[in-house]
Amino acid sequence: MNHTPINNTVIGLLAGLLLAIAGILGGFSGLLFAVLLGALGMAIGAHRDGLLDLGALLRSRGRG
């Protein structure tokens, strides 16, 4: 049997979507809020899994 454990990316996506349930009650803007929180949760989970380096995005580029 091939069993794949749930990784942090999936957990982050589900957490973001569950936190956005209250936003869904707000109509179209709630739907956009749910998508935004889902993407944010997925990005944080991918960072925890080592698939995405959020630190590189937050560091300054050292201009000048």
From TrEMBL:
Q: Which domain of life is it from?
A: Bacteria
Sequence intervals crossing the membrane:
12-40
Q: Print the keywords alphabetically.
A: Membrane, Transmembrane, Transmembrane helix
What's the protein name?
DUF2273 domain-containing protein
Q: Which species is the source of this protein?
A: Rhodococcus zopfii
